[in-house]
Write a structure and sequence with these properties.
Blueprint: E1 10-14, H1 18-29, E2 33-37, H2 41-50, E3 52-53, E4 57-61, E5 67-69, H3 72-75, E6 81-84, H4 91-98, E7 108-110, H5 123-130, E8 139-143, H6 148-152, E9 157-163, H7 166-176, E10 181-186, H8 189-211, H9 216-236, H10 241-244, H11 247-258, H12 263-272, H13 277-282, H14 289-303, H15 309-319, H16 324-332
Parallel strand pairs: 1-2, 1-6, 2-5, 6-7, 7-8, 9-10
Antiparallel strand pairs: 3-4, 8-9
Length: 352
């Protein structure tokens, strides 16, 4: 198929969590034909009977034109675009199940932010490896500072759509655009995913700091040095630095570290206040991607021989029994470093 003569009229949203539901609602409200697939049958039944996803996105009515189904194959029948919004740990299984129902390559947009823990693959790589090679030019990533609740409230939101095929990105850009949802185009699919995934780890760190009541100075330091770690890993994995300074990097980082709507920030906040991780996770039906991403980020840091002290500290708190305050003290008492090189000096920067 060629993008130019194949306009998008029908969209299949795979995943009926808060983000998937918000995107399906946004697209259906534009008059597009939208099918929403939900894993849980009770979510399907509730939306059909009440026109609301009371489990993941309560208090927002869904257009009557939005179809909901629990049949994965049926959800992609005669679709023009697949929008993947499932948790990162479920991505491979879902795409492998979808494959037999897909007769030809068609655009796939990934809205999931995470890294597969076992293989350390980004979501685009997971999807690529689960489909024939001919699908690779059809992949894009949607990432940026975008709480599902505020998108559904119609509050101004800006986000990045990135892909290796510029014609595809430019063709899909207006599909997602509304007066309240502005989409920028980009070509760095790696950087878009690194930013979207790593910001969740930093959000846990920011929540811990706030739970410990460490103040605004600490939060600012976490955001700044967190960005440095994101850039360090991103560059090692082939990302463009400018992407990580943009919406899917710095933008999403600031949102997740300062917004109380962030699930990952909330996990950190409760950890800082003394709750145990198992208790926190068992008390919610939503997914905090940062917990899994911390494992993956720690492994990637070791693999690429990169210093990521914030990631290391959060890994200690989540999985090694480190006391949150002790993790902060360890960060603050490391040996002195330089943030940048000295002008006119051959002295190399010692990364913090």
């Amino acid at each position: 198929m060629t993008i130019q003569n194949s306009p998008i009229h029908s969209i299949s949203v795979i995943g009926a969590g808060a983000w998937g539901t918000a995107l399906a609602r946004l697209l259906a409200s534009k008059g597009l034909k939208v099918s929403l697939w939900a894993y849980e049958q009770e979510v399907v039944d509730t939306i059909r009977s009440t026109r609301e996803n009371s489990t993941y996105l309560p208090h927002f009515s869904l257009p009557d034109s939005l179809q909901v189904t629990g049949d994965l194959a049926a959800s992609v029948k005669e679709t023009d675009l697949i929008l993947l919004a499932v948790p990162s740990h479920a991505m491979q299984n879902i795409v492998e199940q979808l494959h037999p129902a897909l007769k030809r390559p068609l655009p796939v947009t990934i809205a999931t932010k995470g890294i597969q823990v076992d293989s350390l693959r980004l979501m685009s790589h997971v999807v690529e490896d689960s489909l024939p090679g001919s699908w690779k030019p059809f992949l894009t990533v949607l990432s940026g500072p975008s709480f599902a609740l505020e998108v559904s409230q119609g509050k101004p939101t800006t986000i990045l759509l990135a892909g290796v095929n510029p014609d595809l990105v430019l063709a899909l850009q207006p599909v997602f655009m509304t007066p309240h949802f502005r989409v920028y185009a980009g070509g760095d699919i790696i950087g878009a995913q690194i930013g979207g995934a790593l910001k969740n780890v930093m959000a846990i760190a920011a929540g811990i700091a706030d739970g410990l009541e460490l103040g605004f100075n600490t939060r600012a330091a976490l955001i700044t040095r967190g960005l440095a770690e994101m850039i360090r890993l991103g560059v090692a994995m082939g990302a463009d630095v400018s992407t990580l300074y943009g919406l899917s990097g710095l933008g999403d980082l600031v949102l997740s570290c300062t917004g109380s709507l962030s699930r990952n920030y909330t996990v950190g906040l409760n950890l800082g206040r003394g709750s145990k991780l198992d208790t926190i996770l068992s008390s919610t039906h939503t997914v905090a991607e940062g917990v899994r991403t911390t494992r993956a980020a720690m492994s990637l840091a070791l693999h690429h021989d990169i210093d990521m002290p914030i990631v290391q500290g959060i890994h200690g708190v989540l999985f090694e029994g480190t006391d949150p305050l002790q993790a902060v003290n360890t960060l603050m008492t490391r040996s002195a470093k330089s943030e940048t090189t000295f002008k006119g000096s051959s002295m190399r920067s010692r990364e913090l």
